[in-house]
Amino acid sequence: TMQAPAGVRKQLYGTGGEDGESLPAGTESSQPARVALIDAAGRVRARYRDLSGPEQERIISDMNRLQAGQVEVPERLFETRIQLAARAERQQQTAEELTVFHDFRLTDGLPASGITFRHHIVADAGKDYEAAHYDHGNGLAVADVDGDGLVDLYFLTQAGSNELWRNLGGGRFENITETAGVSLADRISVSAAFGDIDNDGDADLFVTTVRFGNVLFLNDGTGGFRDITEEAGVGHTGHSSGAVFFDYDRDGLLDLFVTNVGQYTTGEMRHTTTEAVRGTPLEYSYYEAHSDAFAGHLQAEQRNERSILYHNLGEGRFADVTEAMNIVDTGWSGDATPLDANGDGWIDLYVLNMQGHDEYYENVEGQRFEKKSAERFPATPWGSMGARVFDYNGDGRFDLFLTDMHSDMSTEVGAPLEKLKATMNWPPRLVQSGQFNPQPGRTSIYGNALFQAAEDGRFSDVSDATGAENYWPWGLSTGDLNADGWEDVFITASMNYPFRYGINSLLLNVEGQRFHDSEFLLGVEPRPDGQLVVPWFELDSSGDDAPHRLTQERQLSGKRVVWSAAGSRSSVMIDLDGDGDLDILTSEFNTRPQLLLSNLSQQKPELSWLKIQLQGTQSNRDGLGAVVRVHIGERVLSQVYDGCSGYLSHSLFPLYFGLGGAREADRIEVVWPSGQQQTLDGPHAAGQTLNIEEPATSTDSEPAP
């Protein structure tokens, strides 16, 4: 069954070969057909032969006529459903070949969670669409804000209020936004980062915005927050995007790096309301986008906006040390990730450029940064969006997975070619302009990149060989979803209005050799109720919207609701319901989030895992930057705790290690950001959370109970 907008149902029938024919209301037919159009009352209104191109046009026309001009169905809806069905069939056919455990499902936990948050977009991403960076949406961040041991959720939106949801346990949450004081309803938010800036044991919060000033909140320890932006000195007003906390000089205080995209808005501020089709209208203000926003990097002198490195001075104060530390990055940078590429213990920084080449900045013992992109990375993606550092192949070295969406704007890539995208011949119009290429000799990767680390600190791209490609990707999260000791990958995707639907990809790690597309096997796709489209805006084509592009192009009249493809932006993999397996939370664009709960613990009663909570003493209190290695027989499971949880998202939560078939870990090693090395001899029984405190000196110690 395929669900349609506004009560119209489309239902697939058995095989048949007759031409479709439109039928009067309530008429039945004995002619075999593969597709029938059924109204809200359950009456067959038309039958069709198949979902081929000509029949799709008839179906769309009939649906719009049936709705008396009230619904505008996306033109590519049926084509997309055919592609999804084919992809699902391929995954089912290859399931028998999949050697890793996959006999579990992720199911919709949102209705029972109590979460009612809904994301709202600005008009430039909807009815008054401009191809601009507003369509990049928002991140989400998670942390235990009130110290009860449960991870709470912070959702961001463009219009309306951000929302903080307290974890009640068992997959239930309550809205504490008002008492926490973190709504920021008067701003257009983008990303959030949790980090303990004053080492007092609670999660403070930094939020980036578009031209309304970034905000730093200090946590009082109970989940109440106070705005300290002015005294902290971090209230940059511009086109900010991602933010990451890391301790670049190893002084035990978290520093802050903020990426700025570039000036994609004009000086015109607009005051308006959200669309009524998405709930009660909300008043908001925003700066209108440039009509040529995605060509802004070609006007570097007028539009570039450098990213900012803040040094934590202590006592809640920061200083802009961008120039002093030689990390002046003027690319159109959407996000960044800490990465110790050369393994010297000083955390470097990889900065993603959504409209050009990425840059890798090597940390020279906390004294300065040096560009070493070409030395470490032979090529980088053109148009990177999300990044994740993890050891995908279990060799103890940390690899780098990058999602690349903007190269997808260069040409149309159909579903059958998504996995082969990087091998295509790409047109040069977006990616080879010497006007904005700061290093013309550098080459680009067109598609995702999975950089495998070598012993010498150099990286090579193995994305095609491992199956790491997909279409319209935003960010990614990693985690061991089946608890077999190998980290898997979840990639959010889709471009929303006016583009087609793009699936969220779930890549199961096949013992470090390759990734297996598994979103249909595990229940990530199709979405709950098969929903591919959501209401976007209402169009009064016979009234105020007569000049609208859609009215003119499609010769529309009357009032109608325009629907758009659904789409995710950010995600995080954590154990949301406390049952010992990893779940997935997403931030969606212009609709409600997805909360996908795993039943792995029920399907695999012998499930083995460890969670590790770090507490720094000489290092920053969160332990951000620490490397943890869990020894199980001959295997060593390695993770770096960097807080990067998804696109535009920086979070604090325990590290999760799946132990495979082992019932205990033999030994745990921690290398702290301070340089301290700690060994905790086992056995450490599976199924528990270990709280590990950094010792005052480099000696063996045991975890706190």
Describe the fold and architecture.
The chain has 705 residues and is mostly beta strands. The chain has 3 domains: 2-96, no CATH class; 97-600, Methylamine Dehydrogenase, Chain H, CATH 2.130.10; 605-693, Sandwich (Immunoglobulin-like), CATH 2.60.40. The protein contains 11 helices and 49 strands. The strands form 13 sheets. It has a 6-stranded mixed beta sheet with strand order 15-14-13-12-45-44. A 5-stranded antiparallel beta sheet has the order 1-2-4-5-3, with helices on one face. Strand 44 and strand 45 (649-650) form a beta hairpin. The chain is globular, with a radius of gyration of 25 Å.
Name the CATH homologous superfamily of the largest domain. Answer: YVTN repeat-like/Quinoprotein amine dehydrogenase
DSSP strand tally: 49
User: According to CATH, what is the class of the largest domain?
Assistant: Mainly Beta
Q: Major sheet, described briefly? A: 6 strands, mixed
Q: What is the mean predicted local confidence, pLDDT?
A: 87
- Beta content comes to 35-45%
Separation of the first and last Cα atoms = 51 Å
Would you summarize the structure shown here?
With 705 residues, this protein is mainly β. The longest helix has 18 residues, at 77-94.
